[in-house]
Amino acid sequence: MDMVRTTKRRLMWFFAFLTMLFLLFFVVVTYLTVSRSIMSDQEEKVVDMISEESLSRLIHEAGEPHERPFDHNLFAVVGTSGNVLEKHGEGIEAMIDGWTPNMLETKEVDQENREYLFAGKPVRDVGYVYSGIDVTEQKRVLNRLFMVLLILTILFTFAATLLSSIMAGKAIRPVIKSAERQREFVNDASHELRTPLSILSAGFEILEEEKERLSDFSKQTMDDLSGEVRRMSSLVNDLLVLARADSGKLVFEKKVINLTNLVSRSIRSFSRIVEGDGMSLTSDLKEEVYLKGDEERLQQLLYLLLDNAHKYNVQNGHIYVSLKEANSEVILTVEDEGIGIAPEHQEKIFERFFRVDLSRSRAQGSNGIGLSIAAFIIEAHNGRILLESKVGQGSCFTIILPGLSDQQ
Ligand code: ADP
User: Fold this and answer.
1) Measuring CA to CA, which of 61, 162, 185, 203 is 20 to 30 A from 95?
2) How confident is the model at residue 238, as a pLDDT?
3) The whole model's pTM is what?
4) Which residues' Cβ are closer than 6 Å to ligand 1?
């Protein structure tokens, strides 16, 4: 279910990001096109004011009582030494001060909260000629357009995120349905398989008593078959736990339990298996540790870790279990001297069906489910699991669960 939720969230952000990208592109293109078009109109106007034609008209009209051609605009002729020969407009000297264009050039000037667009060019034997127009209104319109587009982008982004969430929900619905069907199938199939497997196991137990009468070949075949049935039963049980966990049907019956007793019981029964394989199992369970949890599931958790410490150990290897309480936390460690886990695999081993070495795992009857169940049990107890491991040296799994004082 978590994966479905993550996929939905990812889809939503993906849709929202795409929409935002398109919006931004639209806003930038619109703003640039409009601002370019307005400003190039103004540039044309200001350049036109100092074109050859305009200047010759000015010269022609000079000295006569005339209407000035630049009445509403700014105009100045400056000599080569910087002296103003002719001017029209308040404060124009300050705005063109020090500007000596090499050819026809334009520039924008801010003056007393107003914005001007100037054109200037050199005039042979005279100096420089400048023209300017007030573009404050045009700039204001452009600023307003920018603000409107920005607000629209923000509003549309919100709308797009909402829409994306609805769309992602719709897109993911078939996936959820198929996942639900798959879960139901695993649940039903595991249930159906449990009964024949239990009958088979019971049958093998009965046959065990008759084993002595069988030939060596039959004995071997029976051992192989009974091993396979045990492996199948464990797989079916694991699958059932996962299917129940996914559908929220796995109920944890939590009560105050003596964890030290539970651990020492598990160690006692497990040491027989371990010692049978030439390995050793020691523990440090000095304190009496109590916590609130599901006894059956915590036992399953411990078995899963001990089973791995046994499966992935070396010949004559050692397993060490410790349990203590510190700072209102229960700390349980299971340490082995086995093959170890490479850093790049350490996070993945808690994923379902992940196995580091497929050939070795298959030979040992591993299916890559154990640690995902362990992680689920720990999560249900509000705990966490830490792993320290070195290839060729061994692994140490540390489980930290809230102690009794923390839960009350
Ligand atoms: P399984 O052991 O059934 O394959 P798990 O989920 O318990 O499934 O473990 C996943 C994988 O993590 C194993 O296949 C193994 O490669 C690796 N692994 C788990 N525990 C240990 C360990 N104590 N030492 C080395 N490798 C381990």
Assistant:
1) 61
2) 87
3) 0.62
4) 308-309, 312, 336, 338-341, 349, 354-357, 361, 366-372, 395
